[in-house]
Amino acid sequence: MSITQDPAGDPPSSGPATPRATGAGTGRDGRGTGRDGDRTGGTGGAGTSVEPAQRRRDLAVPLAAAVLLLALAVLVVLSLLVGAGTVSVPRSWDFLLGDPAARADERVRLAVAELRLPRTAVGVLVGACLGAAGALLQAVTRNPLAETGLLGVNSGAALGVVTGLTWFGAATGHEYLLWSFLGALAASAVVLLLAASGRSGAGPLRLVLAGSALGATFHGLTSFVLLGRQASFDEYRYWVVGSLALADADKAWTVLPAVAAGLLIALGCARPLSALALGDDAARALGHRPGAVRVTASVSVTLLTGAAVALAGPVAFLGLLAPYLARTVAGPRTGAQIALSAVVGPVVLLGADILARLYDQPYETPVGVLLALAGGPVLVWIARSRRMLTLSTPGGGPR
Predict the structure, then answer these.
(1) CA-based, 20 to 30 A from 88: which of 158, 177, 251, 274?
(2) CA-CA-CA-CA torsion for 40, 45, 46, 52, nearest 10 degrees?
(3) What predicted TM-score, i.e. pTM, was given to this entire model?
């Protein structure tokens, strides 16, 4: 047996053993080269496929936003043209184009300028509020079933407003907004306590069941208060189901600062919530404070939900539908989900409201009923899907 000395200074080894050692080293070098190829996008196959996929995902969000904004513009025009009354679409179009005869017609002016225009503006505001609030609530609770209607936040805000106008004489938009905020804040606090309860927090279905019980309780109390004061059916429907039929332009201007503040806070929470999706310890390691992030997110949810309920009552399921649709485009990116949900919300709400006006002319179906018909199957689909019940982290893995 011959003994050889490696030129690099390795200890001596027998001849037959040398090819094995050399082969092992080559194998390691080969694997290292493969990894380097993946990182550089050279010879590794993963690198060449990941970059185009990432570019497609990056382009999907602005493209979807542009399409949604175009759809929203079309729906705004349609909302101004159609209604449950007798004013025709051509006559409404003439009014929008500034035709003197149409502008002189008091009936057309009342329908378009006094009824449909405030209703459309309120629909856009309410849709943006509930869409963003739903995405934010799902991110902070790590639950794709979290929605302000399903978890009782809308009902809590409605109970707050009804309590204020019944026993404390609330009559102005600012007073409605204040009582709506108080009710939404109380309900949000209960929801977040439920989400944080137990060793690993409440599961998705458990949280929804608890929120549904909370919402049913608030619904019952609201009905009790309204029936006790002999409220009209329209008022009862407004505060129990939710509707855009009683939209008020003055209230819309009143809640506009709260809407703007809530949306800005929601977008500001996107990065901390992305870190929070990795777990509290990882979020702390990245310099975020999980408790402060959750409190800030709850403030945003309270502002957005309170403003929406003060304008349109407790419209349910919109905060479930909008984030669900936005997530199909944005993926696990929290900021993109919130931004797209704020655009999807008005598109869905205005579309449902237009159908509500046309479905049973000359009567109107409450928009909350149509959203429940659309949101119910989506809720069942998500609840039965294990993949949907596990939200993904910004890195792509399950939470």
Answers:
(1) 251
(2) 80
(3) 0.79
